[in-house]
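call fold(seq) -> tokens
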Amino acid sequence: MKLLVITELFLPTMGGTAVWAAEVYRRLGGKEIHIVTADVPGAAAVDAVHPNTVHRVGLRRVPWLRPESLAMYVRLFSKSLGLALTHRFDAIHAFRALPEGLVAWLVARLMFRPVVIYAHGEELTTWGKGGKYQAMRFALRHADNVIANSDFTRQELLNMGVQDERILLINPGVDVTRFRPGLPCDDLKRHIGLDPAEKLILSVGRLSRRKGFDMVIRSLPDFINQGIAVRYVLIGLGEDQNYLSDLSRQLGVADRVHLLGHVNLDDLPRWYNACDVFAMPNRAINGDTEGFGMVFLEAAACGKPVLAGNAGGTAAAVLEGVTGMRVDGEQAGEIFSALVCLLGEAGFVMGHRGYRRAQELFTWDQVAAKTRSLPRLTVAEEP
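ret:
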């Protein structure tokens, strides 16, 4: 399989999209798969060991241009078209509708090749109805296939006018060799001064309001009032760091909240092992929502029960009452009650079920197999 893959986000950049691109395409082939992506610090070390052929392009936006992303589009298009002219690719894949999908569609049409665009959910609901939205809608409606990461995303695509027969549902996965139970973590517990009698709640993700980390903090006084000893560890960076720190102090729980920022990649699976429950009670804010939630799979692969919000596409990652619980992310009382449940025997059972589900359905090998089975399309007729 000879593919051209266009993705602005790729390792060593953090985040689910970057991990997805790196994990799947390494399993689909070797140097015959060419990946066009952003040139970022640390890229050389990744590219030296990645089995695919990686091409790095400067993709910084230029503030004085209108639009400021124009240079980025030109560079992506030039590199991608040059590769397409010198290689006989079977298809062109783009990991988002913008900027990658629009570039991929144009290159694919010039080369008479099918184009596949990934849709992740949050981008479909946050870009309003202006020019950016219309460009995204055009790319998605004219793709030969669109990969949706959840039923929620699939429905949003249908609402945008993407033809049902062109939408394929492929959930993201998790590295079950890296995220697994039984990893040593006592040193991490000592690092935060966790008492053996205390329970540990963990969150991982960008520190943004829609993730619901502030609502976990707002639930902590209820634990104190009920005499339940808990600590809260939050791993991630983002715009809400000062807000979350200030909120902890205002509520008198700062001694129980540990904002760790970025942690060593090798330590992340160990933190999942250290916790008793994983929590990300996400909510939708001005259309910004969670399209799937790969962190829920990482926690499940480590045998931990999970708490999610009921907004967006989290139902694909968390089975209510089976592998975890989904609640209204706006209600601290619901979050508290669910966490108490998950910290008990029910949580132990759900964690075990989540582990089995991750092993059976969500390994990267399984995701790659679904991607490999994409129909060998000819170029679809334009709608």
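The chain has a mean pLDDT of 94.
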